[in-house]
Amino acid sequence: MLAANNAFQRPGSGLWLARLWSARELLWALTVRDLQVRYKQSMLGPAWAIVQPLAQAVIFTLAFGYFVKVPTDGVPYPIFAYGAMVPWTLFSSAINSGSPSIVGHSSLITKTYFPREVLPLAAIASCFFDFLTASLVLVPMMIWFRMPPSVHLVWLPLLIGMILVFSAGITFALSALNVFWRDIRSVLPLALQLWMFASPIVYPITLVPERYRTLYSLNPMVGIIDGFRRVLLHRQAPDLPLLLLGLPAVFITLLIGYRVFIALERRFADVV
Fold first, then answer.
1. pLDDT at 253 > cutoff 90
2. How far apart are CA 266 and CA 189, in angstroms?
């Protein structure tokens, strides 16, 4: 497959979607490889995708549900926390996995040309598989807490799509910058941890003072997390004004991130 990659167009010779479509088989192969490497010689295998958000949800339930007693708008705290951790884990793991993807595949980059953006996208795609696995736990939780699904589940593809587009924009920029400044890998976990507490994961958005809520909602993950809870737990449609506040940031991030990636792409092979 790699021998055929020399036929791929170089940057600037066509639309980026056409470039990605020409590399779709490589994207799939790299996604499968990422999953195989991640779970090779692992006792739990793909079940690790469930352990991480579930463990965090348990900790948050003990800390904020039983001791601090954070209000949850009538939703039991275990599913309140887990319902937010699943989409947040997709977002954070996509960025964590995608940011070092260029450096991690240096041997490929120095040997042959192919659309480099497939590397961060393959990392995001493998995290999406983990997201689907972790989402399975929501089914028995919703049954246990007597929260039947509703027609509003049709909003989930939009919410998931926003996460993927937003994380792709950030990952494009960080994966390219990480080639030149390796400090990004060290700063990223702290930045994502702070970002998590700046999003309504351990608390509902109603706890944010009204006068700050518009500024707070410019963070796209606010509307997305709130939308997941409304759709899954409250049997409601997402708050569209809230989603629209963060939507411009999603697409601006994608455009800027991809422009940064393309601007630096020609130097990857010389630096990695």
1. yes
2. 28
Where b means 16+ CB within 10 Å and e means fewer, 132-160 reads ebbbebbeebbeeeebeeeebeebbeebb
How far is the C-alpha of 107 from the C-alpha of 112, rounded, in Å?
Answer: 9
In a domain, 17, yes or no: no
Burial class (CB in 10 A: 0-12, 13-18, 19+), 208: middle
Whether 227 is covered by a domain: the verdict is yes
Structure confidence at residue 186 as a pLDDT band (50, 70, 90) = confident
Neighbouring C-alpha atoms within 13 Å toward the C-beta of 72: 24
Q: What tokens were used for 240?
A: 């569209």
Domain of 260 in residue numbering reads as: 26-271
Burial class (CB in 10 A: 0-12, 13-18, 19+), 229: buried
pTM of the model: 0.89
Number of domains into which the chain is organized: 1
Query: What are the counts of helices (DSSP H) followed by strands (DSSP E) for the chain?
Result: 14, 0
Q: Exposed, middle or buried by CB within 10 Å (0-12, 13-18, 19+), for 16? A: middle
Q: Around Cβ 196, how many Cβ atoms within 10 Å?
A: 19
Confidence of residue 13 (pLDDT cuts 50, 70, 90): very low
Mean pLDDT across 16-30: 79
Q: Are 74 and 233 in contact (CB under 8 A)?
A: no
Query: Domain for residue 251, yes or no?
Result: yes
Contact 158, 213 (CB under 8 A): no
Cβ 246 vs Cβ 213: under 8 Å: no
- Phi and psi, residue 239, nearest 5°: -75, 100
In a domain, residue 140? The reply is yes
